[in-house]
Amino acid sequence: MKLFKFPYLVQQEILHNFEYKNLLLLSFVSKNMNKLIKSSQIARFKSVNFIEYGSGRSDEPLVYIPHKNTRYTILKLTGPFENPARHENDYFTLNISGKIVDVRVCIFHGLVVFSRSWEPVIKSIHNYLLNLFGSSVEYRWTTSTRTDLFEVFIPRLKNLSVLNTSCGENDMKTVDTYLLSSPVIKRIDFFIFCSLDRGFFSRCGYMPTEEPFPPESKLYQAQSIGVTQRELATPAVLRHYQGRQAFIKCERCENQDLIEFINRWKSGEAFRNLEYLEIEILISEVPQNRIFYATGTKYIDVTKRSPTHTLPKIFIDNGDDEPNTDPITSHAYVVRESDGHVASVQIQRDTFSFGVWDKTEEEFLRMVE
What we know:
Blueprint: H1 8-16, H2 20-27, H3 31-40, H4 42-46, E1 50-55, E2 61-67, E3 70-78, E4 92-96, E5 99-106, E6 110-114, H5 118-133, E7 138-142, E8 160-167, H6 172-180, E9 187-192, H7 200-203, E10 224-231, H8 237-240, E11 245-252, H9 255-267, E12 276-281, H10 288-294, E13 298-299, E14 308-309, E15 328-329, E16 332-335, E17 341-348, E18 351-360, H11 361-366
């Protein structure tokens, strides 16, 4: 290939101007080309925040790479040709990490892979991308949102750190079984809604109250979790969560759930790793005075300016321009009995916010102006 006749810096500059989907195609040309791409594009590949496996309109898996506030498709997986002989000039065979598959090149999707069995092919594709881009890239899996038509599909992939899943009632066990036999995932986004057999209104709503995940579920061990649910108790994040940052949207919540959460944190019984919690309640408002009275909340003098709590987000979604959690500027706070550390508590109509400081009450009050 003529590219190898140029000096290395020229090769590097030429490859740097290739789109990711074209670099991927070029990496299959030969082992030497693959090595050249990996060595010359190290800095560029390190700037890739994540690679995401998602779904197209027909629920066919797609592989995305982010670019600014959008995503570029570099690969698509689809079913085989119904009449292969008729389309024999439309595709060629390719070895992807030891898996021989039929592929063709597409302007919009880069590489299109044809297969009847998706999971083994996805694993081969993932292993190839892992070798090409490296383990410093965050790998994300997003399941189809069309739970009324398709079953939840989550393949077992190495280094998967983010799971974004929409889940109906019948899929809960599938998700929990996957989590049970997998390493703890960095971030889980969980959208729960009802099945079709309950009618249109129920399908567009959320699950009824029940305990779909046991206390030991790895759902509650993710460093960061985002849950959209009907009842605050489903899943029971406020009871079992062991991670650092939680973002919850629900239709309603019981006051007692919030009171119990604060009191358990204060006692040191639970939530030892928690840094930040935000609950957005879509229907009802949270009675601030009742919650504060029942939890023995303390107050900073209203004539003074309270410290503002904010932290770097563990997980930043594509298109999210805010790297930090929403600021909590509240005169209300609670103290943990076991170590004297403080958490700011803020209730603003339909939003409950809880931010833990790495400071004792004495150190916290020194920041008050």
